[in-house]
Write a structure and sequence with these properties.
This protein has 91 residues and is mostly helical. It is built from 3 helices and no strands.
Length: 91
């Protein structure tokens, strides 16, 4: 559970960092910057960079979802075993 908690905190921090980057770097651009051939290659680099970072974070989130499904499955199995024991149905 500590591993899941740690991974979730890392994911949330990365998500906040991505949002901050978008606000600071990309929102400061003006439409005229997109038409400036001296600037638009830098804009493309920035967009690709944030896109790759978001993809990496998405992979981490999917890993957390797999772990969550495993935990739910194990807890359900334990709950069913406990219910059987409490009902006295175990043979």
């Amino acid at each position: 559970m500590k591993e899941v908690d740690f991974k979730l905190k890392v994911y949330n921090k990365e998500r906040a960092d991505h949002f901050k980057y978008i606000v600071d770097e990309l929102d400061s651009l003006k439409p005229i910057d997109f038409e400036d051939f001296n600037k638009n290659h830098e804009i493309i680099k920035k967009v690709k960079e944030i896109k790759n970072k978001i993809k990496e974070s998405d992979i981490k989130l999917k890993d957390l979802e797999v772990i969550q499904k495993d935990v739910v499955k194990k807890l359900t199995e334990i709950n069913m075993e406990n219910s059987i024991d409490l009902l006295g149905l175990k043979t």
